[in-house]
C-alpha cells in the first residue's frame, strides 16, 4: 500500500476549509503520484472576535488589528495558533512527506510552519499573504530548502503586492533557494491561471525530486 503525501491548506479570514477545495481538487487531479497517494487536510479556523471587524466573531486563525491605516497581526494569538498547528501537523503526518499551503491568513501560517516544524515540508504554496511579526520566527539552521510558490494579485487592495516580495526576501535570508514569485491581474483572490501555474510548478518539482 502506498504512503500518503499530505497536503495541508489553510484558508483566509472569514472562510472555511472548503474555500480552498478548488485548489486541493486541482492538485490531486493534475499532479499524479505513483509511490504515494494524496491525503488532503483543509482544517477550519476557530471562530473568534476579530478586532479589525469591530470585534465580530468569525473564522480567524489569529486576531487582526487596524494600525495607522494598515493591518497588524496580534502577536500573542499568532504565536498561539502557530504552536497549535505545529503539533497538529506533526501528529498527523508522522514521518510521511507533506506539503503546506495557504491563502492570506492561511499563507502566514504555511510560511511559519514551513520554517519552524522540526521536519520541513517538501514544498509550500503561499497565496496573497504577508509577513507579520517576523521577529517571532526562529530562522532554521538545518539547511532546509523546500520549494516555495508565492502568488499575489497585482491589484490587491487588502495586502499590497509588495508584500510578496517581502516574503520572498525573508525566505532567501533564511537560506531558501528555490522560491518562485508570480503576480496576477487580480485583487485579493485567485485566478484559474494561478491554479494552473501552481499545478505545473508542483509537477515539475516533484519530478525533479523523485518524490511521487
Automatic annotation (TrEMBL):
Coiled coil: none annotated. Gene3D superfamilies: alpha/beta hydrolase. InterPro entries: AB_hydrolase_fold, LYPA1-2/EST-like, PLipase/COase/thioEstase. Keywords: Hydrolase. Residues 7-203 form the Phospholipase/carboxylesterase/thioesterase domain. The keyword Protein transport does not apply. PANTHER family: LYSOPHOSPHOLIPASE-LIKE PROTEIN 1 (PTHR10655:SF17), LYSOPHOSPHOLIPASE-RELATED (PTHR10655). Belongs to the AB hydrolase superfamily. AB hydrolase 2 family. This is Phospholipase/carboxylesterase/thioesterase domain-containing protein. It comes from Guyparkeria halophila.
Amino acid at each position: 500500500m502506498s504512503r500518503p503525501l499530505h497536503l495541508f491548506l489553510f484558508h483566509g479570514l472569514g472562510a472555511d476549509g472548503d474555500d480552498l477545495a478548488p485548489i486541493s481538487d486541482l492538485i490531486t487531479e493534475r499532479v499524479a503520484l505513483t509511490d504515494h497517494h494524496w491525503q488532503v487536510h483543509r482544517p477550519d479556523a476557530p471562530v473568534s472576535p476579530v478586532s479589525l471587524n469591530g470585534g465580530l466573531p468569525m473564522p480567524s486563525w489569529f486576531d487582526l488589528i487596524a494600525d495607522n491605516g494598515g493591518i497588524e497581526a496580534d502577536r500573542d494569538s499568532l504565536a498561539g495558533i502557530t504552536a497549535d498547528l505545529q503539533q497538529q501537523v506533526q501528529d498527523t503526518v508522522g514521518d510521511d512527506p507533506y506539503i503546506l499551503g495557504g491563502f492570506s491568513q492561511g499563507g502566514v501560517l504555511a510560511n511559519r510552519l514551513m520554517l519552524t516544524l522540526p521536519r520541513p515540508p517538501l514544498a509550500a504554496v503561499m497565496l496573497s499573504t504577508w509577513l507579520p511579526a517576523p521577529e517571532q520566527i526562529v530562522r532554521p539552521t538545518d539547511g532546509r530548502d523546500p520549494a516555495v510558490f508565492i502568488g499575489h494579485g497585482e491589484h490587491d487592495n487588502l495586502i499590497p503586492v509588495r508584500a510578496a516580495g517581502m516574503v520572498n526576501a525573508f525566505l532567501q535570508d533564511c537560506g531558501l533557494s528555490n522560491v518562485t514569485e508570480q503576480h496576477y491581474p487580480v485583487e485579493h483572490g485567485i485566478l484559474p491561471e494561478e491554479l494552473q501555474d501552481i499545478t505545473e510548478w508542483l509537477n515539475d518539482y516533484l519530478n525533479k525530486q523523485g518524490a511521487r
